[in-house]
Amino acid sequence: MVPAPPKVLTWFLLLLPLMTCCSNIAQTHGKALIKIRKDDGGSKKKDHNSTLVLVVSVLLSGSVFMNVLLAVASFFVAFHLNPKVNKLVQPNPVASGINLLVFTYEELNKATDEFKEHLGSGAFAAVYKGLLPFDKDNGKSIAVKKLHNLVSEGDQEFKAEVGAIGRANHKNLVQLLGFCNEEQHRLLVYEFMSNGSLASLLFGPSSSRPNWYKRIAIAQGTARGLFYLHEECSTQIIHCDVKSQNILLDDSFTPRISDFGLAKLLKKDQTRTTTGIRGTKGYVAPEWFRNMPVTNKVDVYSYGIVLLEIICCRRNFEAEAEDENQMILSDWAYDCYHYGRVDVLVKNDDEAMNDMKMVKKHLMVAIWCIQEDPSFRPTMKKVTQMLEGTIPVPIPPYPSSFISSL
Ligand SMILES: Nc1ncnc2c1ncn2[C@@H]1O[C@H](COP(=O)(O)OP(=O)(O)OP(=O)(O)O)[C@@H](O)[C@H]1O
Ligand SMILES: [Mg+2]
User: Fold this and answer.
1) Among 142, 197, 239, which residue has the most ligand 1 atoms within 8 Å of its CB, making it the best to mutate?
2) Which of 128, 175, 282, 383 is deepest in the core (most CB within 10 A)?
3) Is there a single domain that holds both residue 149 and residue 297?
4) Of all protein residues, whose CA lies closest to atom 16 belonging to ligand 1?
């Protein structure tokens, strides 16, 4: 994800073994010279040879030295004169093992053309499109996220959190490329996702809706990304704001989870619900509202809601629903499952209508994910396995059946 080193640097690195090889030859000549002089001082011919060897050696060593000098000099000249190469390309290790680009505010101001193209705003940030200046020809597009308020005012805490986000690297995650950490400005720089958010695809015009099979692939990719964050990442990350706006689609419509790791960077009161609760209304797990520990099962709950949205191509809450019973998607979906009318959920979707077994399987997984009791919800690993068909999906209980035991 970190851009390739500039071409001149690559040349220099390629030249290095060659130059080392040349200097070895010179050293070999040097050593031969000393040996000859010690061996025989009487022979004129040998004296003559020795002088020749000495002259050749001096010339060779001199030329090698000049070559090295020239290569180093041309590297520095090219590095400073080439307008495509500037300090943006120099990765800066924030934590061991990761290289994130460190930007100044001015550099990002330039990269976004003074924050001209506004991609959208959420509760705690505004996002702008940009182009990395050293790669104008090939255009490495970026999304620059301006964070409004942060919990960790300290430099070290911010860097630690950003480091954890940067270390997470999986094909189903939006990769963090770098950041800006100045007193007044905290910005995060991500890969640009050309196909927008899952929410805009699912709930936008019907012509933009991914078909049933693409939706299945999106559901599986998202589950895999969350499984990685929970169990495979070096620092475990609970997302805390899984929702269809935070699932973005890249050039090939691969789902990429965004905004993971942000929960820790935000101030406590930056929520849309009750103080202390992270996440977005409609997607938040019930334990946020009860005095219960928050675990990675909060993400499983939110994923279950997203899965229902993916199956039905509708928002988790619709005030304008045909029928009052259909307003809350999770209630309506469970009713349909319970009464054996899963088809009603996908009635306008021919491909899904012809694949009812799979629709039912996905619905059952979703119902497991939205169980009120977090311990009843499967892990994201199990969810992935059930969706991929490596383990069967047991009959799910009614989501609120165990509410009294909480
Ligand atoms: N890497 C990216 N590439 C392309 N578009 C992006 C990228 N990151 C965010 N966006 C877009 O920017 C917009 C704002 O994103 P942001 O994460 O700030 O808000 P949100 O996720 O919609 O809402 P919230 O802040 O409430 O979670 C969204 O419409 C999103 O699609
Ligand atoms: Mg977001």
Assistant:
1) 197
2) 383
3) no
4) 122
